[in-house]
Amino acid sequence: MSFITIKNHQPVPVNTIPELEYDIFYNLNISLLAEHPERHCVLYFGYRVLDVIRLMCCVADDIQHNILISSSIVRSDSKLNSFSAKNLSFERFEREIHENFGIDYIDHPWLKPVRYSEYRIDKSKTIHNYPFFSIESEELHEVGVGPVHAGIIEPGHFRFICNGEQILHLEIQLGYQHRGLEQLLLDKTKLIQRTTLAESIAGDSVIGHTTAFAYLLESLSGTVPESEVIYSRTLAQELERIAVHTGDLSGICTDVAYQLGSSVFGRLRTPIINFFQEWCGNRLAKGLIRTGYNPFPFSKALSERLTTILDAFEPDFVEMNGELSKLPSSLSRFERTGTLKYDQLLSIGTVGMSARMNALNRDIRMSHPYGRYPELNHEPILKHHGDVYSKVQIRKQEVLQSIEYIRKWLNQIPESTKTQPQPVTLKPDLFAISLTEGWRGEICHAAVTNNKGELVIYKIKDPSFHNWLALALSVRNNEISDFPVINKSFDLSYCGHDL
């Protein structure tokens, strides 16, 4: 057997994952994706085993609801054929492996550092001498934005090559934060420390990432969460989707100077995040998601309060979207702006809402369901134009869909018996992978334990890791004045990338 097949959140002994010669490993994973749009790479990473590197590739089959795992042992001074030369969706994974371990991919199309992490193998490569792409021409000019941006925003540099107002090329370089978060998850051994780190991966996706973390540690420890814990996690994840989508609609309206939409959507976001404050004491839901138990069980009183909030929220949200969808000045900025085709989205491995904007059906709630999603028969919202307006429509419809799900769940509150921390002891020599669908898209956490039950590798992938390239491609042939609204329609994470 050249790979092992597992389900989402299913642990397996590390020694059951086949170790292949690199040429076989290479051909296997290229063939798994070739002419199979229902499959995509959810994670490809390496970690040290003594003096060699073990590469592990995780390919999700969205129709069969399986994850296909294979591995290969290589040396850090290896010169390898790149997956990316055959399938571009691997390009950033291989760049990270090259940056961390020095493995040379001889035919990689864009072999540049990804993050400039503190643990990179070549410290001479720094963000200050990043090799930006350039074109020699008297007619073209470059525009640099960042890394320091106006307002409160994280650092990232955007280098445009323009012909007048028309964008020909955009290169996005992040990697300014050097947080070392994956290493911290190994260094810190207390569960509360690791949980706090998981909550800090991306501040606007606290529930999405912490839920992935909790499921992963439960898988590795054999902990089975009770139904109320699963209930609260799933409900909270849909509330997070409502809150951020609504806030993004406000930001998109701001970027096209539609003040009424900006104000109303901004106002509507507030009671949703304030409900998290009532539920667990934090507006971003820090403290709510815990491994093995729920410190803040959902109650009938909270159900009644949330019902009141949604009853006030929904009609205003629908009315404001109705106004937005018939406003010519806004539609002229949304429609056919920042367009990507299905084949482009597929080729670069786009996930989440950024994939669904042009019929690429990537949604973990349907393809690898978890929590309360299996009972819903969830149908993702798909659009077919791949522009800013498609993402505006997805946000609107997903908010209404989430409200429908939550109203159903509010009549099904399970009782809780465990409101105190439970012992969590990781089992030895295991591998597990945890996928959740954050509001941005597919979140992936994976880990390996050693023979003492200690973490030897913890890998995190925010959906932004896939989707920053989609943003860079979407602005081509648009005017540079359209960049702010295109950028906001993706709303990708700097910190979720700069781990």
| Outline | globular
The biggest beta sheet reads: 5 strands, mixed
Percentage of residues assigned to helices: 25-40%
Number of strands: 14
Q: Unreliable segments (pLDDT under 50, ≥5 consecutive)? A: none
Provide the CATH top-level class of the largest domain: Mainly Alpha
Any idea of the CATH topology of the largest domain?
Cytochrome-c3 Hydrogenase, chain B
Q: How many domains, as an integer?
A: 2
Q: Total number of helical segments?
A: 15
Along the chain, the helix and strand elements come as: EEEHEEEEHEEEEHHHHHHHHHHHEEEHH
Level-2 CATH architecture of the largest domain = Orthogonal Bundle
What's the overall average pLDDT, rounded? 95
| Fraction of residues in β-strands | 15-25%
Describe this structure in words.
α3 (181-187) runs antiparallel to α4 and α7 packs antiparallel against α8 (300-325). This protein is globular. It has two domains: 4-114, Beta Polymerase, domain 2, CATH 3.30.460; 181-490, Cytochrome-c3 Hydrogenase, chain B. The protein has 499 residues and is α+β, with helices and mostly antiparallel strands. The protein has helices at 22-33, 91-101, 181-187, 191-199, 206-221, 227-255, 259-280, 300-325, 328-334, 342-347, 353-356, 364-367, 388-409, 464-474, 483-490; strands spanning 4-6, 12-13, 19-20, 39-49, 52-61, 66-74, 79-80, 104-105, 141-145, 157-163, 166-173, 430-437, 442-449, 455-461. The strands form four sheets. Strands 1, 3, 4, 5 and 6 form a five-stranded mixed beta sheet that branches. Helix content is 39%, strand content 17%. The protein contains 15 helices and 14 strands.
